Amino acid sequence: MKATIVDTRKLERVNIRGEGDPGVRWNGAFVLYGGHGTTESSTIVYEIEPGGRLGWHTDATEETQYIFAGTGELQLEDGSKNQVGPGSVFVLPTPMRHDLVNTGSETLRAVAFFAAAMFTQTFDNVMLPPKTHVLGTPNRNG
């Protein structure tokens, strides 16, 4: 067994957009997931430019996030709004519908850890690419 180390600064990000909602715009990359460096967890990195947001969605597994740059507002299905910024860590239990909005003037940068080797996220908006409501780890189909 060996440790897997990834320089996330070199990972190509996918530009994600929400069909019909120009505010849903972010860039993300899968770092590690089942069969690609892990056996029991998944990790992604993502960025949201000022004024953008992830889009309302629900994750199929518990998610922990760490914000390391920028500021934002974590919005939860119960109507609560929570300010987050560098050093913020938060846990989103399954299935908690949520959104994250960049409320600052710099790029919000974060890493998200999922408690499963494969997972899906179901978005309210159709996400482009790949023109679907469901995103997830590349191994999510098995």
Task: Summarize, please.
The protein is mainly β and 142 residues long. 0% of the residues lie in helices and 54% in strands. Strands 1, 2, 3, 4, 5, 6, 9, 11, 12 and 13 form a 10-stranded mixed sheet that branches.
Could you explain how this protein is built, in words?
27% of the residues are buried. By secondary structure, this protein is mainly beta. The model has no long low-confidence stretch (mean pLDDT 96).
Keywords, separated by commas or semicolons:
13 strands, 142 residues, three-stranded antiparallel sheet, globular
Strand content: over 45%
The beta-strand count equals 13
Largest sheet: number of strands, sense, barrel closure = 10 strands, mixed
Mean pLDDT: 96
Residue runs with pLDDT of under 50 for 5 or more positions: none
How does the overall form come out from the CA principal axes? globular
Structural class: mainly beta
Number of helices: 0
Q: What is the share of helical residues?
A: under 10%
Backbone CA Rg: 14 Å
Distance between the termini: 23 Å
State the assembly state of the protein chains: single chain
Listing every helix as H and every strand as E from the N terminus to the C terminus, the arrangement reads EEEEEEEEEEEEE
